[in-house]
Amino acid sequence: MALAKPCAAILLAMVLVATALAALGVSPGAVFGALLNGAFGSWLALSDSIVKAMPLIFTGLAVSVAFTGALWNIGAEGQLLMGAMAACAIGIKLADWPAPLAIALTLAAGSAAGAIWSGACGWLKVRHGVNEVISTIMLNYVAIEAVSWAVHGPLMEPTRALPVSAPIAAAARFHHYWPPSQLNGGLLLAVVCAIACQAWIFHTSSGFELRATGKNARASAFFRIPVARVTMLAMTASGALAGMAGAVQVCAITNRLYEQFSPGWGYEAIAVALVARLNPLAVLVTALFFGALDNGSQAVQRVLGISPVLAQVVQAIVIFLLLAFDTGVFWKPPAAVSRAMEPTADA
Amino acid sequence: MLRTVDVSRRFGRTVALEAVNFATAAGEIHAVLGENGAGKTTLMSIIAGHLRADRGEVLLEGHGLRPGSASAAIAAGIALVHQSPLLFERFSTAENLAVGALADRRRPRDTVSKAFALAERLNFPLADRVSGSVEGFSMSARVRLEILRALSLEPKVLILDEPTALLSPGELAGFLDLLRALRSNGRSVILITHKLAEAMAVADRITVLRAGRVVASCRPAETSEAALGAAMVGQVVPPAIIAARAASSSASLLRIDDLRLALPGRPALQGISLRLNGGEIFGVAGVDGNGQTELVEVLAGHHYPTAGRIELAGVSPPGDGEIAVIPQNRDQDALILDMELWENLLLAGRLRRTLSRAGFQRRRRALDLCADLLGRFQIRAPGPRLKAAALSGGHRQRLTIARALATSPKILVAHDITRGLDVSATVAVHRLLIDFAAQGGGVLLFSTDLDEIVALCHRVAVIARGRLVEVAPGDRYPERLGLLMAGAGS
After folding, report:
1. Which residues touch B32 (CB under 8 Å, ≥6 apart)?
2. The domain made up of A4-19+26-341 is a member of CATH 1.10.3470
3. Highest mean pLDDT among A58-72, A304-318, B71-85, B136-150
4. SS3 content of chain B, % helix, strand, coil (to 5)
5. Contacts of residue B301 in chain A, CB cutoff 8 Å?
6. How far apart are CA B232 and CA B211, in angstroms?
7. Residue ranges for chain A with pLDDT beneath 50
8. In this predicted structure, which of A311-315, A325-329, B149-153, B423-427 has the lowest mean pLDDT?
């Protein structure tokens, strides 16, 4: 039942897009065919979809954790960038280290940077009542500029010809198991993180405190749930996950830092998390869906010359539809009416 | 003046109203009585255009009202004051009044100044007029503001949905006078209530609803409280509450000495002292906003007192979880409606600890405990996995009491726990308190309902302006208590 709305939203979005395509004189069948083929049509296409989903899993989890506590962390993008930057800065220097240790250290640096970037917003909220929506968004821009500065300055590659960093040490890179596919150990880590988040949020006392705070901070405070501590924990964990996304991307795929490192994984994560209803295990599925959509839409461009913006259009429509379902635009009676209904259910 | 003709309405399979014919004349106060779920609020929502009837129509002065249109109802002169105030939290008093004017396309400035003049005339104290938002207002201040907003629309028909539940006796007398004044201007006033005495005292006509049907309609002179009660409940009136009067003489269980609390800008508690014995129900009467919320919050451990001492069974400060607290605002503070019943149990710190191991929840045990409590406290729910929002008000309150008692506290602090409950639910809640006291627990009952305090409590005190004064047994009648609550005897 919980999945009914997301599935309905996705289906309806597809129908709307198909109608729009048909109206524009493009065969929806051809587009969706190319999309599916590009996303899942071959072993390589499938593995590419999975690899594209990887950063979305981490950032999707980051957003889920924060949103569960009613903390609107819109800053996964910036936290991811800071994570990538820290991972890169450390990873370059680990040439003489044993591989597992080098990877662990690089990832730790990345998630620590993300945790600090978002923990700062948590602290500002708890201590000074600063709205986290604003602080996290603002720090996204700071992070973008910081990356730009780093690749033109301290992290710039030695020949100083291009605004990219030097590659990280081979020891700090994830192994690609079945080249040319880019499948790597980061994916395993993503799944482990999802399971850990699921266990934390739904099976521990700390996760209960987080959910209670998110649903009703007043009642939680009355029953002495440490709301400030819960807020700090959730924001830090959220940032650590987003930072991890950046670090894994550096270790597994890019090996370098450069400007426009992220195509918007931190923002797309909001869609991933909302469609998953903030459920960490469901994030695995929705991240794969959006990863496949990204991947497939590139195939659509190659085959039919249609812009990959198509993927973003689908995403946006899905979110609008989900919100519409939730706020009752389609069938739920307006709030005044459901309030009036309440007493009649009484004993 | 206002008439409904064969109005029927269903929600799913529940029949809320069945062919209701209801009529009220100009210059009349018409009380509508009924238990929770009898259909009172549904009927009024249909009249005010918030709901559409499945069948039937609403006529005002002979003209049919457009069904389901609240703005049409307002324009025609029907104003509804909600059971729980619907105010704009971030707006000031004046802004909230202005919004009412906008809904009726009046000039906000005129409406607001007229409303303030009206408030003056009716002796309606308004806390903070222009600056400051409604957020910090007490319940009774909110109710007053909401009533004033409705009156500022100069309605022909004013519908008041249980407005008196939150008013003190002092305010009540003035309020009933106000109703009479409104009537004399040729308006009709519809007063929804489940307080029989109130209906008898003020109404010109009384209509009783039961299970969506009109079961009686008569003048107060033609009937009696007993007859009305029987019509409401549909059977014998539930037995009156018999308090276990024999207070045990054991040493004081709870001792509070000179407790003070200063909150930003105001001293909320100014030296509270009290002794509570095991087996006792100690009633604290008072008008909302006189320090009872703060006292409850201090006892809940939510505030640290500025000065003074709380000692429980010789231990000061009391051990964690020894005092179980049921806060006033059931749906906002006591429960998380969007969580399941078993999860709501875990809000109690003691249960949160006993039902976890090494940081992990012991879900099986929590579910078992919840299922057990549902049975023991006769909470009507299919199981522990139900969302708390799906329970009715009375059963929600049973859940909060069940949770409090499941922590096996020494003291139970209950704040306004029967507000908005119908007769049988109130009796059930009272019985739980009496049983707890009978087993040696101490109950501290905060309430604005004097009848409840007088009927249930072994000892009574009045709280006014942050001070607590115990009332001698001879003074325990509502009129005297009302004076004390207004701050007279202190």
Report:
1. B22, B40, B43, B44, B190, B191, B192, B193, B206, B207, B208, B209
2. yes
3. A58-72
4. 40, 25, 35
5. 224
6. 9
7. 332-347
8. A325-329
Strands B29-33 and B78-81: unpaired
Q: Which residues of B touch A211 (CB under 8 A)?
A: 339, 343
Overall average pLDDT of the B89-96 stretch: 81
> Is there a contact between A206 and A233 (Cβ–Cβ < 8 Å)?
yes
Does residue B488 surpass a pLDDT of 70?
no
Looking at residue B243, its pLDDT comes to 46
pLDDT at position A345 is 33
Pairwise CA distance, residues A187 & A199, whole Å: 19
Contact A343 B36 (CB under 8 A): yes
B295: enclosing H helix or E strand: helix B292-299
Residues with Cβ < 8 Å from B155, sequence gap 6 or more?
B74, B77, B78, B79, B187
Confidence of residue B381 (pLDDT cuts 50, 70, 90): confident
- Kindly state the tokens that stand for B106: 């009046």
**What is the pLDDT, as a whole number, of residue A335?**
41
pLDDT at B288: 74
Rounded Cα distance, A172 and A166, in Å? 13
Collect all residues of chain B within an 8 Å Cβ-Cβ radius of residue A343: 36-37, 40-42, 83, 393
Given the structure tokens 């680990």, which residue do they identify?
A94
Strand spans (E) along B288-345? 307-312, 323-326
Q: A71-74: long-range contacts (C-beta < 8 A, 24 or more apart)?
A: A71/A122, A71/A125, A71/A132, A71/A214, A71/A231, A71/A234, A71/A235, A71/A238, A72/A132, A72/A133, A72/A136, A73/A118, A73/A121, A73/A132, A73/A136, A73/A235, A73/A238, A73/A239, A74/A133, A74/A136, A74/A137, A74/A140, A74/A267, A74/A270
Average pLDDT over residues B112-138: 72
E strands of B278-383, at which residues?
281-285, 307-312, 323-326, 356-357, 360-361
User: How many interchain CB pairs under 8 A, A with B?
Assistant: 104
Burial A16-32 (b: 16+ CB within 10 A, else e): bbbeebeeeebebeebb
The total number of residues shown for chain B amounts to 490
Residue B317, preceding bond cis, omega within 30 degrees?
Answer: yes
The neighbour count for residue B222, using CB atoms within 10 Å, is 9
Burial of residue A175 (number of CB atoms within 10 Å: 0-12, 13-18, 19+)? exposed
Please tell me the predicted confidence (pLDDT) of residue A273. 93
- Domain ranges in chain A are 4-19+26-341
Please give the pLDDT value at position A71: 95
The pLDDT assigned to B92 comes to 81
pLDDT tens digits along B392-404: 778 888 899 999 9
Q: What is the ipTM of this complex?
A: 0.82
What is residue B237's predicted lDDT score, i.e. its pLDDT? Answer: 40
Look up residue A216 and give its two tokens: 């009703």
Partner-chain contact B349 A224, CB within 8 Å: yes
How far is it, in rounded angstroms, from Cα A267 to Cα A339? 35
pLDDT at B250: 55
What 8-state DSSP symbol labels residue B340? B
Distance from CA of B148 to the nearest CA of A (A): 20
Residues on A contacting B at a C-beta cutoff of 8 Å: 203-206, 208, 211-212, 215-216, 218-225, 336-337, 340-341, 343-347
Single-letter code of the amino acid located at B313: A
CB B209 within 8 A of CB B39: yes
Is the pLDDT confidence value at B191 over 50?
yes
Q: Give A344 to chain B, closest Cα distance, Å.
A: 4
